[in-house]
Amino acid sequence: MKRKRSRERKNPVNASTIGGDANRTSDASLKDNEKTAHVETIMLPHQDPQCRKEELNVALGVVKKVMSMEVAEPFNVPVNPIMLGITDYFDVIDTPMDFGTIQRNLENGAKYMNADDVFSDVQYIWKNCYKYNKPGNPILELVDQVKEKFTMFWNAAGLYGGEKQTKGQVSSSTQMGTRGPTGYTRLLGLRPGERIVTKWNENGEVIQQERGKRLMSYLGMLVRCQRNALLQVKDWSKVPDEAKEKLWGLVLEKFDIDDEHKDFVMNSMGNKYRSYKCNLKVKYYDPYGTDEERLLNCPPNVPQDDWRWLVHYWVTPEAQLQARSKINKANRSKYVLRHTSGSKSHAEIQYEQALMRKDGKAPSKQEMFVLTHTRKDGTPVDNASRDIMTQFEELSAQQAGKSPTKADKLFTEVMNRHGHVRGFGLGQTRFKASVRTLVKEFAFVKEQLASMNQQREKQRKELEEMALQKHRMQEEMQEWMEEQLMKMKDEMMQEFQQYIH
Questions:
Q1: Strand duo 196-197 + 255-256: pairing
Q2: Which of 34, 347, 299 is nearest to 198 (CA)?
Q3: CB–CB of 424/433 below 8 Å?
Q4: 3-state secondary structure of 341
Q5: Highest mean pLDDT among 188-197, 333-342, 394-403
């Protein structure tokens, strides 16, 4: 029995049998299977045969496209609670997410199996923003705009993981030729208590604004938030004073503005508010023939109750004022002028041009019109602008040798339309322009009078100097004559003494 156990012990090692080879092969296969199983347990998502690589590549392209938008900047990086002064952020938000993190996960293949996984993470960006920020916070409008853009790009790429746009729905972001979101995202990155210092010109207009920190863009964003400026009112004048004061307070949180410029800010918000409601009507009300269709196509970011109120109000005779609308449309059709100034105001352009000039003077009204209505190749932007420039040339020829204020006065008359002077910028009425022209004329006359007085004073001093010199010459002549007479007298006395002796 002992020998048998010995042979059995030695046989697996030394015997070269088919059974032994089979056993070794089976053992090797088992080990390989174990290794394969181990590899499968640590296999990355992009290595899985079920991973949809092409789908993920398309998703990555969509994410990069959204990240390239300026309006998406706050959502491209993780939230920094310390820098933003929101130390309770991680107490409220369980799953922080941003586009930058999603992009990295897509590029290194460390997380996602398909586009649905990517879409699920993207949803955390919106959910976190809605969950943490209170109604009325400017970041909520930004996230709505980014969400709308993302959904549009996602559906257009054929992924269809998100909300599909209903057929026939008009979207401001998908229409050709529209400007898209304005640049104010950098305002949201300001530290608590940090404010942007504004600079103003002599006409009370804001100038020298950095890109992404523009006051006018921020004002437009504020009035487009229904929590700040109510839509269920007939016009800006009917917005409650409490709401306007709240808007003024929101402006002061981001900008350092003196109270003397409050009227300019509030008038600017009024214009932005009117333009916003007008755009809503043009894009979401006028294209449809019935109120049912209009109610079904509620604009993005507008509550259903507000949109229902607007639809019912716009159909009333008070809101329509058909006769006045026809007249206004006819007048507007006569005065359609394109410009090349982009988002910059006339005040900013004047300020920049003054800095570039050696004399430091701002360009005249005619020069400003040419600057803002001329293409890069030097040609007028349209025929209407060309006609006005021709009139300027004729005016310049007529005003050759006259004071520059006269030319400005004629410019005001040419560019006047129903009290508003075109080419001046915000809030420039004919009355205001006339007052400023009178002020300039008064300053010009005052300068001329001061110059004349200086000339007269100079002449008076010259005459006094001449009279003084004449008096001195007379005194010197008299002294010389007296000396000569004394000298002659002495000589005569000497001669007489000699004659006697």
A1: parallel
A2: 347
A3: yes
A4: coil
A5: 188-197
